Amino acid sequence: MANGRYRRVLLKLSGEVLMGDQSFGIDPDTVARVAAEVKAAKDAGLEICLVIGGGNIFRGMAGAAKGMDRAQADYMGMLATVMNALAMQNALEQLGVQTRVQSAIEMDKVCEPVIRRRAERHLEKGRVVIFAAGVGAPYFTTDSGAALRAAEMKCDALLKGTSVDGVYDADPKKVASAKRYETLSYDRVLSDNLKVMDASAVALCRDNSIPIVVFSIREQGNILKVLDGSGTFTVVQ
Ligand code: UDP
């Protein structure tokens, strides 16, 4: 246990986190840096489930905006999340961290299917479980996938690593006086349409009392700081 607050967490990273300074795709150095952070959290005694988005490669909405069938585009997006999961698995294993990828779309040549009891066993054995392909259905996002896996794996918190260090009352990149919330209620996030995660993901966390901790993954060492409470973040609870 890192600080007594959490025993098991689900870490959700958007695909864009893996791009580094690139405008597309996977930057191996960035993946290695994030993997080192995950390892540090694991070494601190935490059980870690990981969900990585696919926005650095393909988003269904973007495809649909260009005339593609939405469901077809969403399946492409889900496949993108599997590529990211494999990249993260590779980086973690190069650091000596044992991992398993479980995909909501079965592809037995590359990874396991999602099997909750098996995932439970992996965590008990000290492996990091990377859940890929979201919920396995179109019209959803990996935020919903993260909330779903956090609920079924009985995680103590959903840590959402983004490019900003919390939730603000205005866009901090545009408004200098924007104020960061320390805490927020799920209902406030939903009623004010605050951009934390998709509404369905926030509602699922609310209904299962899973706190959502929004923090910046761009700063080195931030996962551990979030875990010991010394970092900068917003908690939705
Ligand atoms: N996706 C989906 N169902 C899911 C999860 C993901 O259809 O359960 C598709 C959807 O097209 C989405 C894309 O996969 O845009 C990539 O996921 P997401 O946008 O959540 O990635 P992120 O923004 O976190 O990088």
Please report the distance between the alpha carbons of the first and last residues: 21 Å
- CATH arch. level architecture: 3-Layer(aba) Sandwich
Annotated CATH homologous superfamily = Acetylglutamate kinase-like
Parts with pLDDT < 50 across at least 5 consecutive residues = none
At the fold tier of CATH, the topology name is Carbamate kinase
Order of helices and strands: EHEHHEEHEHEEHHEHE
Q: How would you describe the shape?
A: globular
Give a count of the beta strands, DSSP E runs of length 2 or more: 9
C-alpha Rg, in Å?
Answer: 17 Å
Ligands present: uridine-5'-diphosphate
Helix content: 25-40%
Structural class category: alpha/beta
Subcellular location: Cytoplasm
Protein name: Uridylate kinase
EC number: 2.7.4.22
Binding site for ATP: 12-15, 55, 59, 162, 168, 171
Brief overview, please?
This protein has helices spanning 28-43, 60-65, 70-94, 116-124, 142-152, 186-191, 199-207, 222-228; strands at 8-13, 47-52, 99-103, 112-113, 128-132, 157-162, 183-184, 212-216, 233-236. The protein is α/β, with parallel strands linked by helices and 237 residues long. Uridine-5'-diphosphate (UDP) binds at residues 14-16, 53-55, 59-61, 74, 77-78, 80-81, 134-135, 137-138, 140-145.
What attributes characterize this protein structure?
Asp/Glu/Uridylate_kinase; Carbamate kinase; 9-stranded mixed β-sheet; nucleotide-binding; binds uridine-5'-diphosphate; 9 strands; Uridylate_kinase; alpha/beta; about 240 residues; 8 helices
